[in-house]
UniProtKB/TrEMBL annotation:
PANTHER family: LIPOPOLYSACCHARIDE 1,2-N-ACETYLGLUCOSAMINETRANSFERASE-RELATED (PTHR30160:SF1), TETRAACYLDISACCHARIDE 4'-KINASE-RELATED (PTHR30160). It comes from Acetobacter peroxydans. The keyword Glycosyltransferase applies. GO terms for molecular function: ADP-heptose-lipopolysaccharide heptosyltransferase activity. This is Glycosyl transferase. GO terms for cellular component: cytosol.
Length: 301
Protein backbone atom coordinates (compact mmCIF):
# COMPACT_ATOMS: atom_id res chain seq x y z
CA UNK A 1 0.00 0.00 0.00
CA UNK A 2 1.04 3.58 -0.67
CA UNK A 3 -0.20 6.64 1.22
CA UNK A 4 0.28 10.33 0.47
CA UNK A 5 -0.02 12.51 3.56
CA UNK A 6 -0.18 16.27 2.89
CA UNK A 7 0.21 18.28 6.05
CA UNK A 8 1.05 21.73 7.35
CA UNK A 9 3.69 24.37 6.74
CA UNK A 10 3.72 25.46 10.40
CA UNK A 11 5.38 23.33 13.03
CA UNK A 12 2.50 23.35 15.54
CA UNK A 13 -0.09 22.30 12.97
CA UNK A 14 2.23 19.58 11.69
CA UNK A 15 2.69 18.20 15.21
CA UNK A 16 -1.08 18.13 15.75
CA UNK A 17 -1.49 16.20 12.49
CA UNK A 18 0.79 13.38 13.65
CA UNK A 19 -2.04 11.87 15.67
CA UNK A 20 -4.08 10.84 12.67
CA UNK A 21 -0.92 9.83 10.79
CA UNK A 22 -0.07 7.45 13.62
CA UNK A 23 -3.63 6.12 13.61
CA UNK A 24 -3.50 5.47 9.86
CA UNK A 25 -0.20 3.64 10.29
CA UNK A 26 -1.82 1.52 13.00
CA UNK A 27 -4.79 0.70 10.78
CA UNK A 28 -2.65 -0.13 7.75
CA UNK A 29 0.45 -2.05 8.86
CA UNK A 30 3.25 -1.97 6.29
CA UNK A 31 1.89 1.00 4.35
CA UNK A 32 4.54 3.03 2.51
CA UNK A 33 4.23 6.73 3.30
CA UNK A 34 5.08 9.89 1.38
CA UNK A 35 4.86 13.08 3.44
CA UNK A 36 4.31 16.48 1.80
CA UNK A 37 4.81 19.46 4.10
CA UNK A 38 6.50 22.83 4.46
CA UNK A 39 10.25 23.16 5.06
CA UNK A 40 9.97 24.04 8.78
CA UNK A 41 8.37 20.77 10.01
CA UNK A 42 9.95 18.43 7.45
CA UNK A 43 12.51 16.97 9.91
CA UNK A 44 9.66 16.00 12.21
CA UNK A 45 8.76 13.09 9.91
CA UNK A 46 12.25 11.71 9.29
CA UNK A 47 11.66 8.58 11.41
CA UNK A 48 8.05 7.81 10.49
CA UNK A 49 7.63 4.04 10.07
CA UNK A 50 7.34 3.04 6.43
CA UNK A 51 8.58 6.42 5.18
CA UNK A 52 9.41 6.45 1.48
CA UNK A 53 10.15 10.13 1.03
CA UNK A 54 9.44 13.64 2.28
CA UNK A 55 8.36 16.19 -0.32
CA UNK A 56 9.21 19.67 0.96
CA UNK A 57 6.76 22.25 -0.37
CA UNK A 58 8.37 25.65 -0.83
CA UNK A 59 5.67 28.23 -1.48
CA UNK A 60 5.68 29.70 -5.00
CA UNK A 61 3.82 32.55 -6.61
CA UNK A 62 0.42 31.75 -8.14
CA UNK A 63 0.24 28.56 -6.03
CA UNK A 64 2.66 26.82 -8.38
CA UNK A 65 3.91 24.70 -5.47
CA UNK A 66 0.74 22.65 -5.86
CA UNK A 67 1.52 22.00 -9.53
CA UNK A 68 5.02 20.93 -8.56
CA UNK A 69 3.63 18.55 -5.93
CA UNK A 70 1.18 17.09 -8.45
CA UNK A 71 4.04 16.40 -10.88
CA UNK A 72 5.91 14.60 -8.08
CA UNK A 73 2.91 12.40 -7.27
CA UNK A 74 0.99 11.83 -10.48
CA UNK A 75 2.85 8.70 -11.62
CA UNK A 76 2.03 6.77 -8.46
CA UNK A 77 -1.24 4.98 -7.77
CA UNK A 78 -2.12 5.84 -4.18
CA UNK A 79 -4.19 3.58 -1.96
CA UNK A 80 -4.85 6.45 0.47
CA UNK A 81 -4.41 10.19 0.01
CA UNK A 82 -4.77 12.55 2.96
CA UNK A 83 -4.90 16.30 2.33
CA UNK A 84 -4.99 18.43 5.46
CA UNK A 85 -4.46 21.62 3.45
CA UNK A 86 -7.88 21.53 1.78
CA UNK A 87 -6.52 21.68 -1.76
CA UNK A 88 -7.93 19.89 -4.80
CA UNK A 89 -4.70 18.10 -5.67
CA UNK A 90 -5.73 14.59 -4.62
CA UNK A 91 -8.76 14.81 -6.92
CA UNK A 92 -6.30 14.82 -9.81
CA UNK A 93 -4.31 11.82 -8.60
CA UNK A 94 -5.10 8.14 -9.01
CA UNK A 95 -6.25 7.33 -5.52
CA UNK A 96 -8.35 4.84 -3.63
CA UNK A 97 -9.55 6.39 -0.39
CA UNK A 98 -9.36 10.18 -0.18
CA UNK A 99 -9.44 12.13 3.09
CA UNK A 100 -9.63 15.90 2.59
CA UNK A 101 -9.89 18.45 5.37
CA UNK A 102 -11.75 21.43 3.95
CA UNK A 103 -10.09 24.79 4.45
CA UNK A 104 -11.24 27.70 6.57
CA UNK A 105 -11.09 28.40 10.26
CA UNK A 106 -13.74 26.83 12.47
CA UNK A 107 -14.43 26.76 16.20
CA UNK A 108 -13.32 23.88 18.36
CA UNK A 109 -10.07 21.99 18.84
CA UNK A 110 -8.03 21.48 15.70
CA UNK A 111 -7.16 17.98 16.84
CA UNK A 112 -10.87 17.06 16.78
CA UNK A 113 -11.34 18.44 13.26
CA UNK A 114 -8.56 16.15 12.07
CA UNK A 115 -9.89 13.13 13.95
CA UNK A 116 -13.30 13.62 12.35
CA UNK A 117 -11.74 12.63 9.02
CA UNK A 118 -11.26 9.16 10.46
CA UNK A 119 -14.44 9.12 12.54
CA UNK A 120 -12.17 8.77 15.58
CA UNK A 121 -13.44 9.69 19.06
CA UNK A 122 -11.60 10.59 21.21
CA UNK A 123 -9.01 12.02 18.83
CA UNK A 124 -5.68 10.21 18.63
CA UNK A 125 -2.96 12.12 20.43
CA UNK A 126 0.01 13.49 18.47
CA UNK A 127 2.99 11.18 18.16
CA UNK A 128 6.66 12.00 17.59
CA UNK A 129 9.10 9.44 16.20
CA UNK A 130 12.74 9.48 17.34
CA UNK A 131 15.65 7.15 16.66
CA UNK A 132 17.31 5.03 19.32
CA UNK A 133 20.46 7.13 18.91
CA UNK A 134 18.50 10.33 19.53
CA UNK A 135 16.93 8.90 22.68
CA UNK A 136 20.37 7.84 23.91
CA UNK A 137 21.77 11.30 23.21
CA UNK A 138 18.89 12.89 25.13
CA UNK A 139 19.44 10.62 28.12
CA UNK A 140 23.12 11.55 28.15
CA UNK A 141 22.30 15.27 28.17
CA UNK A 142 19.34 14.98 30.57
CA UNK A 143 19.81 11.80 32.61
CA UNK A 144 16.67 10.01 33.83
CA UNK A 145 15.63 11.24 37.26
CA UNK A 146 17.26 14.64 36.86
CA UNK A 147 14.80 17.44 37.64
CA UNK A 148 15.14 19.50 34.47
CA UNK A 149 12.36 21.99 33.81
CA UNK A 150 12.14 23.29 30.27
CA UNK A 151 11.21 26.88 29.49
CA UNK A 152 10.06 27.93 26.02
CA UNK A 153 10.27 31.74 25.83
CA UNK A 154 9.84 32.15 22.06
CA UNK A 155 6.97 32.13 19.56
CA UNK A 156 6.37 33.07 15.94
CA UNK A 157 4.40 36.20 16.89
CA UNK A 158 5.29 38.78 19.51
CA UNK A 159 1.70 38.83 20.82
CA UNK A 160 2.14 35.25 22.05
CA UNK A 161 5.33 35.92 23.98
CA UNK A 162 5.05 36.11 27.76
CA UNK A 163 7.50 38.81 28.94
CA UNK A 164 10.99 37.48 29.65
CA UNK A 165 11.03 39.08 33.11
CA UNK A 166 7.98 36.96 33.99
CA UNK A 167 9.89 33.80 33.04
CA UNK A 168 12.69 34.91 35.37
CA UNK A 169 10.28 35.55 38.24
CA UNK A 170 8.60 32.22 37.53
CA UNK A 171 11.89 30.39 37.82
CA UNK A 172 12.58 32.08 41.16
CA UNK A 173 9.25 30.75 42.46
CA UNK A 174 9.92 27.25 41.14
CA UNK A 175 13.48 27.09 42.44
CA UNK A 176 12.35 28.11 45.93
CA UNK A 177 9.98 25.14 46.03
CA UNK A 178 12.34 22.79 44.10
CA UNK A 179 15.93 23.89 44.77
CA UNK A 180 17.28 20.77 43.06
CA UNK A 181 15.61 21.68 39.75
CA UNK A 182 17.62 22.97 36.81
CA UNK A 183 16.22 25.08 33.97
CA UNK A 184 16.65 24.24 30.29
CA UNK A 185 15.91 26.87 27.66
CA UNK A 186 14.41 25.56 24.42
CA UNK A 187 14.16 27.62 21.25
CA UNK A 188 14.29 27.12 17.51
CA UNK A 189 17.02 27.76 14.94
CA UNK A 190 17.82 31.19 13.52
CA UNK A 191 18.85 34.61 14.73
CA UNK A 192 15.39 35.75 15.78
CA UNK A 193 14.81 32.76 18.06
CA UNK A 194 18.26 33.16 19.62
CA UNK A 195 17.69 36.87 20.27
CA UNK A 196 14.43 36.08 22.05
CA UNK A 197 15.96 33.32 24.18
CA UNK A 198 19.31 34.79 25.16
CA UNK A 199 18.04 37.33 27.75
CA UNK A 200 16.63 34.36 29.67
CA UNK A 201 19.85 32.38 29.25
CA UNK A 202 21.81 35.38 30.52
CA UNK A 203 19.51 35.72 33.55
CA UNK A 204 19.75 32.00 34.38
CA UNK A 205 23.43 31.10 33.95
CA UNK A 206 22.93 27.57 35.28
CA UNK A 207 20.39 26.81 32.54
CA UNK A 208 20.98 24.19 29.88
CA UNK A 209 21.01 25.76 26.42
CA UNK A 210 18.80 23.46 24.34
CA UNK A 211 18.17 25.69 21.36
CA UNK A 212 19.27 26.19 17.81
CA UNK A 213 21.65 23.29 17.26
CA UNK A 214 19.35 20.27 17.52
CA UNK A 215 17.11 18.71 14.87
CA UNK A 216 13.39 18.51 15.56
CA UNK A 217 13.54 14.82 16.38
CA UNK A 218 16.55 15.34 18.67
CA UNK A 219 14.58 18.12 20.36
CA UNK A 220 11.59 15.80 20.77
CA UNK A 221 13.80 13.24 22.52
CA UNK A 222 15.20 15.95 24.81
CA UNK A 223 11.74 17.25 25.68
CA UNK A 224 10.66 13.73 26.64
CA UNK A 225 13.37 13.74 29.33
CA UNK A 226 12.11 16.93 31.03
CA UNK A 227 10.16 16.92 34.27
CA UNK A 228 8.01 19.81 32.99
CA UNK A 229 7.77 22.13 30.00
CA UNK A 230 6.43 25.68 30.41
CA UNK A 231 6.18 27.82 27.32
CA UNK A 232 4.29 30.11 24.99
CA UNK A 233 1.80 28.83 22.44
CA UNK A 234 4.26 27.63 19.81
CA UNK A 235 5.43 24.62 17.85
CA UNK A 236 7.76 23.70 20.70
CA UNK A 237 4.84 23.67 23.13
CA UNK A 238 3.01 21.20 20.87
CA UNK A 239 6.16 19.10 20.54
CA UNK A 240 6.62 18.95 24.32
CA UNK A 241 3.06 17.73 24.81
CA UNK A 242 3.38 15.19 22.00
CA UNK A 243 6.69 13.94 23.42
CA UNK A 244 4.86 13.08 26.66
CA UNK A 245 6.43 15.72 28.87
CA UNK A 246 4.11 17.35 31.42
CA UNK A 247 3.33 20.55 29.52
CA UNK A 248 1.96 23.92 30.59
CA UNK A 249 1.05 26.13 27.63
CA UNK A 250 0.78 29.90 28.11
CA UNK A 251 -1.98 31.61 26.15
CA UNK A 252 -2.84 35.25 25.53
CA UNK A 253 -4.39 36.38 22.26
CA UNK A 254 -4.24 32.91 20.68
CA UNK A 255 -7.14 30.55 21.25
CA UNK A 256 -6.63 27.65 23.64
CA UNK A 257 -10.05 26.33 22.61
CA UNK A 258 -8.54 25.62 19.19
CA UNK A 259 -4.83 25.09 19.81
CA UNK A 260 -4.38 23.88 23.37
CA UNK A 261 -1.49 21.41 23.68
CA UNK A 262 -2.53 17.79 23.23
CA UNK A 263 -0.70 15.01 24.99
CA UNK A 264 -0.93 12.56 27.88
CA UNK A 265 0.02 15.29 30.39
CA UNK A 266 -0.93 18.52 28.61
CA UNK A 267 -2.33 21.58 30.39
CA UNK A 268 -2.66 25.29 29.76
CA UNK A 269 -3.37 28.63 31.41
CA UNK A 270 -4.66 31.77 29.71
CA UNK A 271 -4.54 35.49 30.38
CA UNK A 272 -7.83 36.94 31.64
CA UNK A 273 -10.08 38.55 29.05
CA UNK A 274 -11.99 37.63 25.89
CA UNK A 275 -10.42 34.64 24.13
CA UNK A 276 -8.46 35.75 21.11
CA UNK A 277 -8.04 39.28 22.45
CA UNK A 278 -6.49 38.92 25.91
CA UNK A 279 -2.95 40.40 26.09
CA UNK A 280 -0.50 37.80 27.32
CA UNK A 281 1.06 40.36 29.66
CA UNK A 282 -2.12 39.96 31.71
CA UNK A 283 -1.08 36.42 32.61
CA UNK A 284 0.40 36.71 36.09
CA UNK A 285 3.47 34.95 37.45
CA UNK A 286 1.34 33.73 40.36
CA UNK A 287 -1.12 31.98 38.03
CA UNK A 288 1.60 30.24 36.06
CA UNK A 289 3.63 29.31 39.15
CA UNK A 290 0.58 27.84 40.87
CA UNK A 291 -0.20 25.65 37.85
CA UNK A 292 3.44 24.64 37.33
CA UNK A 293 3.97 23.66 40.97
CA UNK A 294 0.75 21.65 40.95
CA UNK A 295 2.00 19.70 37.93
CA UNK A 296 5.34 19.06 39.59
CA UNK A 297 3.51 17.88 42.70
CA UNK A 298 1.45 15.45 40.60
CA UNK A 299 4.59 14.07 39.01
CA UNK A 300 6.42 13.61 42.31
CA UNK A 301 6.47 9.99 43.54
Amino acid sequence: MHMLFITATRLGDAVISTGILAELLRRHPGVRVTIACGPVPAELFSHVPGLERILVMEKHQYDLHWLKLWKECVRQHWDITVDLRGSAITLFLRSGRRLILRGGRRPGPRIEHLAALLGQTPPPLPTLWCSQAERAQAQALIPPGQAVIALGPTANWSGKIWPIERHIELWQSISQAHPQARPAIFYGPGTQEAELAHPLLDALPAALDMGGRFTLTQTAALLAQCALYIGNDSGLMHMAAAAGAPTLGLFGPSRASEYAPAGPQAHWVAAPGPEGEAPIAGLSVETVARAALALLHEKAP
